[in-house]
Each structure stands twice: as C-alpha cells, then as structure tokens.
Task: structure prediction
Amino acid sequence: MKVWLLLAVAVATWTSLGAQSLKPSKDIPALEATVARDSNDAQLHYQLAIAYWSRKRFDDAGRSLQTAVTIERRFAAAYLALGYLPHGRRRKLMEEEAKGDVPIEWRDSVIEAARLRRRAFLINPLVDLQIVGAVVPINVSVLAKISFGGVTFDPFSALIRQDYQLAFATFNRWVAEAAKQSPKDSVPSGLLWLRGLSAAQAAAYDTAISDFRRLLERSETVERDSLTTIPLMTNDFRYMLATLKYRSRRLDEAIDLYKEALANDAGLFMAHIQLGRIFEERHMLPQAVEHYRAAVATSPDDPSLLLDLGIALRQAGHLAESEATLTDAMTANPRDSRVPYHLGLTLQQQGKGPEARVAFNRFLVLAPSRYERQIRDAKRRLDSLP
Result:
C-alpha cells in the first residue's frame, strides 16, 4: 500500500485503533507534598493531574486540572487535558463519537470536551500535546510507522514527546509521497494538520503557514476531505494562520488576519489579546489598551484579561485606572499571584508606598517558588519602600 494511502486510512480510522498510554507515575506522594507546599502553582497541579491520570484516578485528575485553570485561566495544556478527560474515563468514547452513537449520558460531556479542546488550541495553537498520546487512538505498529531507507520513524509519538524536528521531517516525507502518488491537493487534511503543527513547533513557518492556509481554504469550501478529526472551525484556522504570521514576525499580515478573524467572530477574545501584544511590541500603547479592553468586554468572566489590561494601562501611564483594574482582577481571582505583583508596581509608581507594601507582601505569600525573578524583585522593592 502506498504511503499516502496508509495516511489516508490512518487519519480516517483513528477511532478504531489502539491508543498509547501514560507511563504509570511513581511520584504521586512526592507531587502531592510539593503541591501542598506550593499550592498556587498551576503547573504543579497540572503535573499532579497527569500523574493521577496515569494511574486512572480520573476524578483526582479532573480536580487537579480544574484547580490549574482556576489559578491560571489561560492554561492551554490543562484545558486540552480536560477536553480529553471523558475519553480517558471511557476508552470507547471516541469510537462512539465517530459512529454518532454516543450514549445519552455522555453527550453533554462530549460537547463540553470539544469546547475545551478548541479553547486550548485558541489560547495556544502550539499547546503541549502530551495528553493526546494517552487518548487519541494511533496504530503505531501498522499505520504510523513508515520506513524510509530502512529506518523506521514514528512521527505521532515524536510530536507528542516534543521531538518536533523528527516529527516534521517524517510528516514532510509523507506529504511529499502523497503528492507524488495522488491527484493534486488530495493530501488528507489530518496529515496537513499534523505536519503544520510539527512545522510550527520546529519553526518551519513557511511550511506551517502553507498547510494552515490550505486547511482554511478546504474548510471554507467544505471539500470532500473531512476535517472532523481536527478540533477547529473555519475561522479558527484563520486565527491560527494569523498566529503563525505573528510568530514568524510578519506582523502586518498577522494584524490583518486577526482583524479578519474578529470580523467573522466578534467573540474571539484571544485575537484581541494577540493584537494587544503586537501593538505593545510596537510601542503603540493606545491601540494595545483598546484591544485589551475589547478582550475584557468580550469575555468578562476571565479575570486574566483584567491582568493584561491593568498592565497595559500602567505602561500607557493610566495609573489610577490600572490600579482599579488590577484590584478588580485580584478580587476576581485571589489565587493568581501575578496580580498583586503588578498591582504593587502600579502602586509604587503612583508613590503609594504603604499600599504597594501590602500588595508585594501578598504576592510573596501567594507566589509559586518558580517565580524566582519576581520574588527577588518584590523583596528588593519592599526594601526600598519608605
């Protein structure tokens, strides 16, 4: 069977194959002790969740993942894991989805899981895919291992374990083979998705941009090649294409695409965040503030957006509004230690020494130990306050 046909079968029949699994963790007691000491570190809660998952302790994993996204509201990897948690609990759920035969008691979970997976990719198109290997069925022994020159590669596992150069090189070979053996532009969308992701991770942006542009075009025209294995909608491909333009420093093109994405979906708050970052980089602070305001208006239940807005307001010299915005952010999410740190900076810049001292001390109580630089800076600032 030709390589391109193997891929077509692989992409179309993932749900009938066996998934890889996480290696059972031996570190759960140590991780639990570390989390107890460093309870506001979202990364540690995520690591503990993955350890629980490896032992099939799915209730514990779910609680730890929820804690992670409560602390850090834009934690893409945790949202992705939550989006696959039902499939961890019920191994045949993906197959049931593919057949349109999901048990009624699982249907709400499936809908919510799809929403969470989409959110993960919109927050970070290059989200860590570690958890995917535990639930997405891939037959590495038959379909995913292709030999080139006597050497066998497994690009699916390479992508999941973050060996992006190997994954990209192998998927690239598969696309080339598919292009030789099949009619024009009949490379499976699933393969374009996988090569595009691995190319982006390997900083091969021209290839990644080309693949996502083709996916956008296919989704717009609803071609025969199914996109159902990809957790995004048409406008999301436009957003991801904009993000690749941003990462490759084609900023004007990125701005145009983000604005086009917003014209198609006014609720795409992450496009406002990305535009705000670009304008911050260009020192166009009024425009940055405008987009951060729009992000808050679009998604008012996300306190992390108030943090972004508060920082931008301080940088733009709007100190009183920065103080008010960051105070609101701290009320909305009292476990996010980044907020009192930035509130302290704003208060210090206003000359409000006693209030800044309270904010910096609050930060030191909450801060994860891995925030070493900010902890040193907060202590230095406390020493300098009157």
Residues 19-135 form a domain with the Serine Threonine Protein Phosphatase 5, Tetratricopeptide repeat fold (CATH 1.25.40.10).
